[in-house]
Amino acid sequence: MYGSNLVGISPEWLGSIYYNADPARLSIPGVRARHAGLFAQLAQQANPAECALLFQQEMDVWFGLHQLNHDKHGKRRFRSHYLSLLNGWAFDASSIEGAVLKGWVESRFGLLPCYHREPLGRFGSPSWMRYVEDKLNGRYHNNNMYMQLDLLYEFCQYMLWRQARPGQRHITLYRGANSASLDCTATTRPDAHHTLHGAVTVHLNNLVSFTARHDIADGFGDLILTVKVPLSKILFFNRLLPGHRIKGEHEYLVIGGEFRAEVGYL
């Protein structure tokens, strides 16, 4: 299932093994133009830590992330913050914060989730309605949250491509899975739970966590998926910014779809 998107490539192609094998660079229209001053400063800065500081300053200026916000009765109001989503995801990918992140992927890239708390059935089913309720939670939509995530994605992409080797378009990442259920990972082989090994095609949720280290992935299941992930499908990685909880597992947040994966047992 697919929706509309903003990146100029059809969702069907973007979610396919063919795009993931031969990816093009992606960009959300208007973001870099709107923040041209930030990207001009980044181009003059060689230190990644200084780049992170510039990004955080830009976020604060545009979205007032450290300003106190009160309602008409003088009570302090929650001001939605992209780091709150990342921290919520680190705790539970099926949390409300996880649903908001999946909703952003759905809105910008047209890739619909296949799992949130439980496998998602048809539109209008109880599982879908629960996902929709979570992703539209008003706590996280009072401060242009999707625009915050747009800028986060563009900053992440800028830093990844700046650090990439000439000709590099992929990074090898790993994901632990359980052979009994494979979480939200569904394979194209009907007997996969019995014969899963070697090269297979897997369909991943529209946003999913990977790690850069094989020895960390093996702590999350008895199967290890090894995937060449396009740089253009990375929303965030643990070394990009300070001040978040996605740290100890060398984690990458990856926009999903169908991937070819090497699968091995521990």
Which features does this protein show?
single chain; 266 residues; alpha+beta; 2 domains; six-stranded antiparallel β-sheet; two-stranded antiparallel ribbon; globular
Description:
With 266 residues, the chain is α+β, with helices and mostly antiparallel strands. The chain has two domains: 11-163, no CATH class; 170-265, no CATH class. 37% of the residues lie in helices and 21% in strands. The protein has eleven helices and eight strands. It has helices spanning 11-14, 17-21, 31-34, 36-43, 48-63, 82-91, 96-109, 126-135, 145-163, 192-195, 214-217, and strands at 115-116, 118-119, 170-177, 186-187, 198-211, 223-230, 234-237, 251-265. Strands 3, 4, 5, 6, 7 and 8 form a six-stranded antiparallel β-sheet that branches. Strands 1-2 form a two-stranded antiparallel sheet. β1 (115-116) and β2 (118-119) form a beta hairpin. The longest helix has 19 residues, at 145-163. It is globular and about 50 Å long. The chain starts with 10 loop residues before the first helix and ends with a strand. The relative contact order is 0.17.
